[in-house]
Amino acid sequence: MSAPSTTGTRPTPASAGGRKRAALQGRAPQDTPAGIGTYLFLAVTTLFAAFPLYWMFVIATSTDEATAQLPPAVIPGDQFLVNLNEVFTLQDVYFAASLVNSVIVATTVTAAVLFFCSLAGFAFAKLRFRGSRPLMLFVVLTLTVPNQLGVVALYIVMGKLGWNGTLLAVIVPGLVTAFGVFYMRQFIVNSVPDELVEAARVDGATTMRIYWSVVLPSIRPALAVLGLLTFVATWNDFQWPLITLNGTDYPTSMVAISDLASGNYVIYRRVLAGAFVATVPLLVVLIIGGRRIVRGIMEGAVKS
Amino acid sequence: MPTTRAAPDPATRRPRPTPVRSSTWRDRLHRFDVRYVPYLLIAPFFLLFLVFGLFPMVFNGVVALRHWRLDDPELTGWAGTENFRRLLTDGDFGNALYNTSGIFLLSTVPQLLLALIIASMLNRRLRAQTWWRVGALLPYITPITASTLVFNVFFSRDFGMANWALGLLGIGTETPIDWRADKLHSWIAIATMVNWKWIGYNALLYLAAMQSIPRDVYEASALDGAGPWRQLWRITVPMIRPVVIFTVVLSTIGGLQLFTEPMLFDLNAQTARGGAGGEWQTVAQLIYKVGWKDLNLGYAAAMSWALFLIILVVAALNTLLTNRISGGRR
Asked: Taking the model in full, what pTM does it have?
C-alpha cells in the first residue's frame, strides 16, 4: 500500500502495513485504519474494566427483581436510598461503624507509612552509616517474603498482646512497609541533590532539620503516590482483618461486607449497596490521583 | 538544653579551640546526630518487621511442631512432625493444592498475555493517553470483596449475565451452566475475577518498561518484514525481560495465596468450604478454615509453612522458565 490514508476508514487487510508505516513516521495511529482497531480494542478492554463497577451500582439501586430477570438489568434503578437505608440499619452488622473503622485504619496507616518510610528512605539515600548497604538489601529481600504466611503465629502474637479484635492489630503491623522504604529511597536518591544536604549540614542543620526543610519539600510527588497506593491497599485489605477482627462487632468495612454476604440467603441489592459505598472513597482517590498513581506504578516498575 | 539553631559553628574549623562548654555539647550532639540518628530513622521498619514479620514467620515453625488448639489451651506440647506427616495424607490439603494450581494456571497465563497485548496497544501514540491508563486501574482500586460479590451475581446459574451472554452464543441454552457445581467452571469463574483485577496493573508495568525501548529497533525489524506479533515476541518481550520476570514472580506469590475470591465466591461466605465439595477451596482458604473454624492452629501453621515452600519452589521454577522463554532464544 502506498500513500497512507490520512483519515480513519474501515479496517482493511492492509492494516498491519499502515500501522508499521505509522510507527515509522511517528504519526498518531488514529490516522490509519489500524488505529481504529487500537481504539476499538482499548475501548472494549476499558468497558470490561469498568463494567463490574457500573453493574455494582445498577444492582445497588434496584429491587430484588433486577438480579432475577433475563435479560439482566443494565440501567440503574431508583432504590439506592432504600437499599442504603437497609444496610445501615441492619442490626447485626454495624456498617456505619465499620466504615468509620476503615477510615481510621486507612488514614492512620497512610500517615505513618509516609512518615516512617520517608525517614528511612532519606537515611538510606543520603546519610552515610555503617551497614547501610546490607541493611537496604535486607529491606529489599523482605519484599519477596509473603508476610501473610506467618499469619497463624501473628494471630498468636496479637493474642499475647491482647490486640486481637481491636484495630491496633490491623494498624500496627502496617505502620511502615518495605515497599515504601524502597520507593522513597529511589525517589530521594534521584530528586534531592547531595549538595543541598551537604550545604545544610555545613550550616549546622541537624539530620531531622535537613529532613524537615530540605527533603520533605522536594518529595511531595512521591508522598502523594505512596500515600494513594497505601490508602487503597489498606482500605481493601481483607484477609488479616477478617482473621483478627472476625466475630467482633466493629470490624473494617471489607469484613462487614463479607458479613453481609454470609447467611443462607444473600440479598444482593443490599450487599452491593454496601460494597458500593465502601468503594466510593477509592473512586474518589482514583479521580483525584489517577495520573499520579499511574505514573507512580510505572516508575516503580522501571527501577525494580 | 541548648537549642540547635543553625549556627555557623563548625566541626570543620577544628583548629581554633572554641569556648569549652557549649562546643563540646554541640560536638557531642553533632557526633550523635551523624553517627546514630540514621539508625533511629530506619529503626521503625526493622523493629516492626522483627516483631510482626520475621518473628511470626519463625514462630510459625514452632507452632507447626506443636499441638495448638484454640478451643483447648491446655493441650500443649510437642507434636513433632505429626502435623507435617498428616499433611502428606490429608485429602483436603491435596484437593486445595490441586484447586490452587488449577486456578493459578487459568489466571496467571491469560493475565500476563493480555497485559502484554494491552500494554503494546497503550504504547502506541494515542489520544487521551492518560485516560486509557487510568481506566486500566479501575479494577486495581476496586476492593476484591466488592468485585467478587458483583461477579457472584454475574455467574449465578439462573439469571446470571455470564450464562445469558453464553446463551446468546448458543452455549448452555438447554441447561444453564452451574458455575459452582464443578471444578472447571468454578475455577474459570474465579480465574476471571483474578484476571479482571490484575490485567491492567500488569499492563502498566509492561508499558513502563516498553517506553524505554528505542523506536528504531522496531523500525529496523519492520523493514525486515516482521509483523506486530513477531515484534512482540522477538523484540518487546526479550527487551522488557526483567519486568516480565518481576510480574511472573509477583503473580506466582499472589496466585498461590489466593484467598478473598474463593472465600466470597461461596454463596454463604465465611463457611470457608470453597463449594459444597470443596470444588474451589484454595490452600489459603483451607488454612483459614483449619485455623479459625476448626481451631487447630498447629496444623494450620504446618500448612502455611508447606505453602511457603511450595511458593518458593514454584516462583524459582517460573523465574527460570520465564528467563528461558523470554531471552534464551535469539
From this structure: 0.86
